[in-house]
Each structure stands twice: as structure tokens, then as C-alpha cells.
Amino acid sequence: MATNTRIDDARLWSALMSMAEIGATPKGGVKRLTLTDVDRAGRDRFRAWCEALGLSVRVDAIGNMFARREGRDPARPPVLMGSHLDSQPSGGKFDGALGVIAGLEVMRTLHEHAIQTEAPIELVNWTDEEGSRFGHSLMGSGTWAGIFPLEKTYGLRDADGVRVEDALDAIGYRGPEPARPFAADSYFELHIEQGPILEREARTIGIVTGAQAQIWYDAVITGQDAHAGTTPPSARRDALVSMARIVELVDRIMRARGDDGRGTVGFVQVGPNSRNVVPGEVRFSIEFRHPDFAEVQKMAAEMTAAADALAAPCRLELTELFRLDAQPFDPACIGLVRDAAQRLNLPAREIVSGAGHDAVYVARHIPTAMIFTPCKDGLSHNEAESIEPHEAAAGAQVLFEAVLARANRAL
Amino acid sequence: MATNTRIDDARLWSALMSMAEIGATPKGGVKRLTLTDVDRAGRDRFRAWCEALGLSVRVDAIGNMFARREGRDPARPPVLMGSHLDSQPSGGKFDGALGVIAGLEVMRTLHEHAIQTEAPIELVNWTDEEGSRFGHSLMGSGTWAGIFPLEKTYGLRDADGVRVEDALDAIGYRGPEPARPFAADSYFELHIEQGPILEREARTIGIVTGAQAQIWYDAVITGQDAHAGTTPPSARRDALVSMARIVELVDRIMRARGDDGRGTVGFVQVGPNSRNVVPGEVRFSIEFRHPDFAEVQKMAAEMTAAADALAAPCRLELTELFRLDAQPFDPACIGLVRDAAQRLNLPAREIVSGAGHDAVYVARHIPTAMIFTPCKDGLSHNEAESIEPHEAAAGAQVLFEAVLARANRAL
């Protein structure tokens, strides 16, 4: 099964930089918001690259793109690989794009060396992974996977009131294929880690064994707006002081789990937010993550048990947005990633994905694995996001070998 | 010196409601931002009311209005009274307006009863007490008192880039009088407490003995934006967690002073403020107040001594905006307020003003006192700001008696 075929490092990097021109920002990042004209330009360039290799490109009802290379055995279901081309508003060049462009490089290498695989291979660009425009991350893969009903997804609106369905039509990417799982052999996604672990341990490859369990909340603390100069301590109901205690609680609960736990307050809105008014209302987010669902449920239970008392004399209202079980990836697919890294002598480690990825939803229907590569300082969702060309190439080579092994496996 | 003359409660309330029509908001509050057309309408109505009583109205270079009623002795300097007619963007009907309209009722009562005072009496409407539009509270009284140079004040701009000088011209209220202290006998200001103390103790009158000392800071905590799902505790520099510790510190420092201390974080801005990003930057305000300047300096010193360590591993940058000494009011003027409340059998207590008021700057040049009346739930800077008609009348009656006593005192 092993091969000496190597992907073309320079061609990979050049395609990454070519895609990064579309929506390039002055600070070296990318703004390629989903279903905008900029996204269309990225999709068009991607489609042209695929068609130049003789791949046939299908588009489904939510805009997901599938570029197919036939295999020798027409009865076999395809091996999928891919990621997403949309970005955050102040995003980087590699979040998502690496997985799609590395998949393109896999296709180009197969084409260049005239390699025929047993199973077909399809390269996927999932619509709207980021959720920045319509407030719904993993929209394309989640709709495809049947988690979000298509009609509901179509009705989501951006800040200007534009509906998803109309945005798809506007850029010509509402396709005729149904957006639902089809018979597929497996799915492989290469992605930057978006965290510091691989870099810190000088590992080139993360063998992703699954995705963390998560519980997300919206929190509102209601106290009483009051004049900061005239309101004595005994008369205050300061929503910000109450929030501060809960922020520290979330942090303590996280730290009690060593390096496996995550607990974050990322969003805060203070009202009335005036320097001489005691804040009467604070709205904020709370999220917990852990590789083990039982443990993340314990974290959430610790928080909810303690939070009301900490918020007093203010009133705390917690709304649970969702709880997601951990999503383990497929052992056989994970094994192919591990084998490839080993064969290539790349320093690797197993890792649990802390972020959500299209692979997490795809894994509900199809055997799935992910490959992580390091990113500088663990930075992502940031224009300064940066990776090394040799690390991108190593990730793409592992993707190539895992996909090739899977497509040629004995049935 | 005592008099049985009573102000007209119904006329006072009716004038308050008439002024509240100008800039009325749907929720029952007032939006009468300084030097806008709405402010002009309020000023014009005020001027017309004054002129109908035969008062002569002067306007100075910063738009402060002085409505003069002559006394018997032309050699005597005038007794001043007043407050401000501008409001917060979502302000109430009484913050400022009560002091001006009660002063008008004093003038109307003197007029109605043909009372001649020894000294002249002048009713003042100070420009831009709130600071909501040009970011500079107590602008009119502070410029008049020589604390802010006129040319610098003229150059301040609102959010649309409009300069103070041009805004004054636009509403026709840049007057010919110099904006600087003139010979005056005293200044009395009636104002709602904007705090809960009088209401809680069921006192109708606050005998204000002075204003608190204050120290204000801007704070910036710099950590590192990072993905909330992928960044383990050991790699986090969460600016919000650091801020939370400082918010609690400020609260502890306040509470250690019993009910005399004030310590508030009222303004918070989190960056990037996204629910799945560990916050890399938080900007916030810190302010301390206390009746005793030495004590407020200790509070600030405690905070600055402890804050850096609490912010670690993030970096804290503190900018002191100003430190204001406590401003004691004039014992003789305070005595007149106390006497009036006593004579009228009104439940009263001494109180230190926690808020800034025009009286604080006027007091630097002229013997000054203030009268507080309760407001419902201590609420102010809020459209729900509310007072009882009989409390407004009690405050106006005390103002009437104190001003009359001062204007007729033996020299």
C-alpha cells in the first residue's frame, strides 16, 4: 500500500497563496465571508482548478461542492476529503483553505502521476463552516448531515436581513443535488490545529481521535443601574461584580481538569456601560469542553450549582444553548493517518479537537478522521494566523497517503 | 428672617412637566442633549418664562444663562441659584431641570408676592452638565470657573465632529458675556439625590455638606486572543479572567470603607468579544470616591499595589484620568439650608454628594450649598427617574427660604 509518490510542496503553497488573494486583507489575512461575491470568486477559482484536472463538480442545495475523480471500480463508494473555503471576518489564510487546497494537491498529484485508485475520490468544499455571517457555524455540513433542516437553514438571515437561500441564488451556488448524506466510504479532513499543543511539543502531525464534548450557555445577570457616585455599597446590585465571580468560577472549574478541560467566557455585553453607572445588566456566554461527555456534564453541573449564590444579590438567568456529546472518529481511518505519519517519520501525537469542524457532523454518517498541522503561536480566527510551508506539505502528504490507502484498500 | 410665604406647588410641577415635554421620550424620560435644537427649545422656553417676570437674561461665551432680578441695594453682589437643563441621552425629567425650574418658581413667588430682596438674585442654567455629547461633564460651570480654558472647550467635538463653538453658534447661544467668575454673594443648587439614601431613611431634604473626592482610571488588560476550544489552561492569557479579579478587588476596597466608599467598574469593552475566543484584550474604567481625599488616595493605592499581580499572566496598563479633592461647601450657606428644613419641619440629614455637580466648580469661587431631594429607588440617568410632587415642592421651598435669607442677610 505504501507509495513513494510525493505531493508537490511548491505547487501546494502556490495554490494556498493564490486562494488567499481572494478576500486578502491589508494585515495579511483573509475576509471571505460565506456566500458573498468574494466567496463566489473563491469557489469559481476552486471549480476551475478541479475541472482542469478533469474532475466533475456537483453542487448541492446548500452550496456544498463535490469534485469527483472516478476510480477503477464503479461499484465502490467514494472516499471524501475536504474542508471549507469561507473565512471569519478577520480570518487567516489557512483555516479551512488548507484542507481544501491540500485535497486539490492530492488530486493534482494523482493526475500528474496518472494514478488510478480503486474507489472514486471526492474533494469537498463545505458551505459556511464559520457561521460568521448567518450566526450558524457548520451550516453546510450540518444541513447535509440532516442536523439542520434545509428549509430552516434557508430562512436564516444575515445582519442585513439577507436570507441564506437568496444569498445562494445571488452567487449562483444553489445546486441541484440534494443536501443529504450519500453512500460514501470515508471522510478525511486536514486542518490547522488552531491551538498551541503541536507547536509546543514540536509535533508536525496531530492524529485527531475525535472532537470534544461541549455545553454552551447564554447568561444574563440582572441587578440595578445606579449612580456610581451616590450609591453606597449596601444599596448596590452590581451585575458586573456578580459576573466577575462567575468568570472566575468558570476558570477554576476548567483548571481543576488539568489540560483537558476548557471553560471560557468569550462574549460580554455590559449595560448601560457608562463609567459612572453601576452596571445593572450583563449578558455573557459560558462554554465548557472536555474530551469526555460525562466530565463536561460535571463541569456544567458544578457551575450551575454555584452560580446563583455567586450572582446574589443580582439575579442570574442561564439558558443552555446545546450540549454536544464527544464525537469519536473512526478507528480504521485514524489508523491510516497514524500509519502515514509513522511511515513518513513525522513527529506526531494523538489529539482531541477542541474546535468544531465539518468532520464532526460528517462523522455521524461516514467513517471519519482528521489530520492537524501546527499553526504559529496557536493563533487562528486572526489575520496573523500563520503556518510553515513544510508543515502544510507534511499534512498534505499524510492526507494523500491516508486517502490513497483507503481508496485502494481490500474489501 | 422667617417668612410664611409659600411657593406654588402646582405651578412648580406644571412647569417641570412643561419643560419635560421638550425632548420627551416614549418611555417617559427626556433626551435634551446639550446645544442641540432640543436644548435650544428648552432654553427658549426658560428665557421666555424669565422675561415674563421682568428678569433680564444674560448669556456668556459658553452659553451659560443668568436671569437677574434686581435687589434693593445695587451695591450688593447677587445671590445665585440654578442647575442645568441638558440631559443624558436616556435621561429623566428631573436631573438638572428640578434645580432650574425650582429657581424659576422662587422667582415667580417673589414676583407674585412683590417681595423685594436686599441683594439681587440670579437664576442660572449651566451649559452641558452631563458631558454626554462632548465627553466633558460640567463643561459650562467648569469653563466659567476657569478650570477648562475657553478655547480648549470650544475645540471639543461630538461624535459627528461638530465643535462646541459651532454648536453654540448654531443654536444662537454663544453670548457676549465673558465666561468667568464675577462678584457674587453665594450659590444654591437644588438637585435630586441620584442615590437611595434619603428615600431609604425617609428624609425629604439632604443638606449637602460637600462633594466627594474622586480618582478615575482607564485600564487596559492585554492577554492573547486564542481559540476557546483548542487552547488549554496552561497556554491561556485570558484578559477577562484578569479583569474579573480586578473588578472584585475594586469592590472589596470599596466595602472595606463601609457606606462611605465608592468603587466602580462601569464601562467594559472586551476584544474580540466572540463566544469561542478567549478574550485577548479588555478595556475598562475604574473609579473611587470618598468624602475624604486621603482615604480615596489610599483606596487607589491599594488597587494599584495589587492589580498587576492579579492581572498576571496578562499585562495591565492603568492611566489615571484625574484625581479631584473633596469640595466642602460653605458652612454659612449650609446653615441656611439646615435652618430652612428645620423651620419647615422637614425630615432632613446631612449628606455628601457622590455625583459631580455644577455647584462643585462654582464652590471654588463663591460660597455654595446644595439641597438634595429623594428620587424613586435612587434611580437617575434613566428614563424611569421619578420624584414625588410634594418632595419637589419641599426642596423648592427650602431653596426659596435659603436664598431669601441670604439675599436679605445683614452685612
Explain this structure to me?
The structure is a homodimer of 411-residue chains. With 411 residues, chain A is α+β, with helices and mostly antiparallel strands. The first copy, chain A, folds into two domains: 9-211 and 327-407, Aminopeptidase (3-Layer(aba) Sandwich), CATH 3.40.630.10; 213-324, Alpha-Beta Plaits (2-Layer Sandwich), CATH 3.30.70.360. Chain A contains twelve helices and 16 strands. In chain A, a hairpin with a 5-residue loop joins strand 1 (56-59) and strand 2 (65-69). The radius of gyration of chain A is 23 Å and the shape is globular.
Features:
homodimer, 411 residues, alpha+beta, Aminopeptidase, Alpha-Beta Plaits, 9-stranded mixed sheet, 34% helix, globular
What's this entry about, in short?
2 copies of one chain form a homodimer. With 411 residues, chain A is of the alpha+beta class. Chain A has helices at residues 9-20, 37-52, 97-112, 139-144, 150-155, 164-170, 197-200, 239-255, 293-311, 331-343, 358-362, 389-407, and strands at 56-59, 65-69, 79-84, 121-126, 186-192, 205-211, 213-222, 226-227, 262-264, 268-271, 277-278, 281-290, 315-324, 327-328, 348-353, 368-373.
